[in-house]
Amino acid sequence: MEYEVVIGLEVHAELSTKTKLLCGCAAEFVREPNTHCCPGCLAMPGTLPRINKRAVEYAIKAGLALNCDISEYSRMDRKHYFYPDLAKAYQVTQHYYPLCKNGYLDIETEDGERRIGITQIHLEEDAGKLIHDEYETESLVDYNRSGVPLIEIVSEPDLRSPEEGRIFLETIKSILEYIEVSDCKMEEGSLRCDVNVSVRPKGQKEYGVRSEMKNLNSFRAAHRAMEYEVKRHISILEKGGEIPRETRRWDDNMGKSFPMRTKEEANDYRYFPDADIVPMYIDREWVARLKEEMPELPSERRDRYVRDYDLPEYDAGVLTSSKALAEYFEECIALYDDPKNVSNWVMGDILRITKEQNIEHEDIPVTPNQLVQLLRLVDKGTISGSIGKNVLEEMFATGKDADTIVEEKGLKQISDAGELSKIIEKVLEDNPQSVEDYLSGKKKAMGYLVGQTMRATRGKANPQMVNKILKEELDGLEEE
Amino acid sequence: MKKMKVSIQDVESVAHQSQLILSEDEKAKVAQDLTRILEYADKLSELNTDDVEPTVQVLPIVDIFREDEICPSMDRETILKNAPHATDDSFIVPKIVE
User: Fold this and answer.
1) With contact defined as beta carbons under 8 Å apart, do A41 and A22 qualify?
2) Contact yes or no for B79 and A42 at CB 8 A
3) Which residues of chain B does A23 touch, with a Cβ-Cβ cutoff of 8 Å?
4) Are A13 and A27 in contact (CB under 8 A)?
5) pTM of the full predicted structure?
6) How many Å apart are CA B56 and CA A97, to the nearest integer?
7) Partner A contacted by B55 (CB < 8 A)
8) pLDDT(A299) > 50
9) Is the ipTM reported for this complex over the cut 0.85?
10) DSSP-assigned states of every residue in A415-450
């Protein structure tokens, strides 16, 4: 039977505010435990919370970027659960009146654009961190993260494959970076997601039973978990089995999901309004101003690259997928007026090297100015394009300018016709068989001779000139 | 005795959610108390509140925000002084593994 995959995602993003949601403790990530805590975030009696206005503003910005309605009335609720990662024994979140509702996000898939519904975006506080492996029967608690503001972005179950899920996550990440509300550092846990997966026979209207996996902390893990769950569901259904409604745990090392021990009764969070925090009436002028100040979003930037720089859609998509990369590209073309050439180098060698060496796009060690100098050396014919690639690697490794490296390593291209002729004559002398092949009509032998010439000059010969001189020499021989 | 709105099972479930341990006597007493409270709430439900906004806040204030400015956190040693169990840098709690 053919099945249809149904996926919904919940993305939790830590907001990059300076302080926590409800108290003035610093929200930055620190390793030293319990250094960013106060009576407020430790729930000492007599403390009163006050909402960080910037956190609300960031949530609204995210809502605007994801085409949501921004609520006129919103408030905070308490979600109760018994676990010591929050000292209050409840989490301040938004259950009844979230800040943003009814949005959507258009994603670019191989089959074209797809519109994914955004159910809501709500504001909440993050929980502290428990360390379990230090003692046998006890756990250590670090409340630094407790109270750091988060937004949770909830999608409709509109995603139809793990691949769409992956693209959705990447797009959300890129948007949050563009609007500068989250630094989206997955390794520090500032972006996490929950995935809900079900399958149904193609054509069936009702959804299948879904399973939920919480707290996936990398997109790769999320993608693998979605793929695994889809396969697992289908194989259960194929065998005539039933899928239980459950929460599962993804083990990324094993590449498998496991059922979490299910408690007998359903979780009852006993949500109710937090009476310590007064309701918010979101001023329409505030929203209008934020809308006006909204920076260019990735999709808008992509369209602009195609329109203004005449780049292929694909190139524009890659360059704008990360804000840092797009800014790098724009700094380069401000200095050097050939967007396509810059794009080729950035998308090709720069992305390859950053990927190989695990360098973040904001940390590219070769400055735009340095890259442009390198491109100019290639344009002037001082070095060949392929030597240029080696020079770029060297620039990444040493931080030196292209000029310096070319000078130090003696990489200048040989464009002197006299010098090249001498080298080529020697190559022809050394390879009589290839010369004979060429003369007897095997024109492919020319390629070998070009290669030998490049080798003799350690790649420094000007390739166009080598081709030209070699052809002249060989044609000369042919006439003899 | 008439049938109570809150059964012993309800009490047990709520007690479990709140991590309370109650004796059989206490359970019966709590069931009675909670029943009385709910009956009182029922009485309020007799009023027509169609045009009344739900009240979650009795204070006539809204939109109390704080600027995003860092206030010094509390000294770790002081914080941990209040904890029944702690190491030099962390709180200690009984292990609860999900």
Assistant:
1) yes
2) yes
3) 71
4) no
5) 0.82
6) 12
7) no
8) yes
9) no
10) --HHHHHHHHHHHHHH-HHHHHHHHTT-TTHHHHHH
